[in-house]
Protein: Replication-associated recombination protein A
Organism: [Clostridium] polysaccharolyticum
Amino acid sequence: MDLFDYMRSKNQETESPLASRLRPAALDEIVGQEHILGKDKLLYRAIKADKLSSVIFYGPPGTGKTTLAKVIANTTSALFTQINATASGKKDMEQIINEAKNNNGMYGKKTILFVDEIHRFNKSQQDYLLPFVEDGTVILIGATTENPYFEVNSALISRSIVFELHPLSQDNIKALIKRAITDEQKGLGAYHAVIDNDALEFLSSVSNGDARSALNAIELGILTTPRSEDEKIHITLDVAQECIQKRVVRYDKTGDNHYDTISAFIKSMRGSDPDAAIYYLAKMLYAGEDITFIARRIMICASEDVSNADPNAIVVATACAQAAERLGMPEARIVLAQAASYVACAPKSNSSYMAIDKALETVKREKHAAIPSYLKDAHYPGAAKLGHGLGYKYAHDYENHYVEQQYLPDEHKDTTFYHLSDNGYEARIKEYFKHIKKQQEAVVMNIPKDPAMRLSYINTQLRDNFSSLEDLCKSLDADPAEIINSLKAINYEYDEKRNQFV
């Protein structure tokens, strides 16, 4: 280290931000993260014994990922090298790897490589590290705010232990603020500041577990607040509120918090909890989420989770989505809240969702399923010669505009895709189907059993509905010859129709 490096180092000790100066130097000075740094925990024991293997620290900003890496740097006997993935490339890593090989070969020294924001490395950069992590040339410490299982190569993940750091508790934040105010060497103790209890409560709450945010706020407050008559700087609630204008919300539009929050929002609507749905909606809006993204999710939920139990849900969701897009914020919050609360309070059914997925899976598996000929298009010359459309029952010609008819291909004639629930409007649909099918069965039950009367009944049916001979034959469970004889008896031209039965 030359004179300039020494002076730069000394200046950083006094001029760097409070959050940086207050970083713990020893493991026992770290506040919070007891779930991984308790004295009986693996990570604590590994650091203390200087037997650390490759690890990835994952957690929100301000939870101590870099701090933990710095503590390891202070306690390990290995050489410690740090790079930031946003500013480093393959050449930087090549230089570090070469030095690590030399130090290991010549001095038997291991090298710990700390890569901050490792998720910013692309796949090829991460792949470059892989063999050197695997053979022990370097011990990797990666830090990331993103879910490593999405952002870090699975091969690197498999060779590392992932430790998740949690947001600090309010008590943890309070302890750090008090340390910052009283520590005269690293903190702001020389300013003789005092903080009111309500200000302390406010800062520890509004920072949402982000130590850096809380320390930045208290530093700003102390450095900008004039001394009182007692020569002390008083951090009141008003001062604290000025120093942190907006609550820290753990929400990023592409990371875990984004997907976790929208997931909780959708599940709250699905679970019929309007209070939770409105809360997560507010959280997304407060963090600046795209209102069209939110509106799309409400529409999806209205169709997937409400469906025909309340057909108006998709209407309300769509109308509110259009209104939100036209209005923009802040008014869009109102219509989005209306849609979310409507969907949350609506009766639930996933019948349509389950039906289409089952049908898609069926179509995907099947080789070929022929459409029944009577359902095929008959609106062109020659269709009748192909048998297309012959025997089709036109539903509106029947009572209740309903008639029993096989619409599915023969391969799936006994398959049910759509199962109506007993909720909301679907219960009414189910009752309606029971009613019209019961009436249809009553018609069939009224078919005479006496042969003479049966023949008369057949003749009447044929006169009223000449196009449905084949269907009549099936519904009566009649012998085709009986139908043909009936045709003869009433002097119909039957030769063409007879060919359908022989």
In short: Residues 33-164 form a domain with the Rossmann fold fold (CATH 3.40.50.300). Residues 46 and 494 are 93 Å apart (CA to CA). Confidence is low (pLDDT under 50) at residues 490-502. The two ends are 104 Å apart (CA to CA).
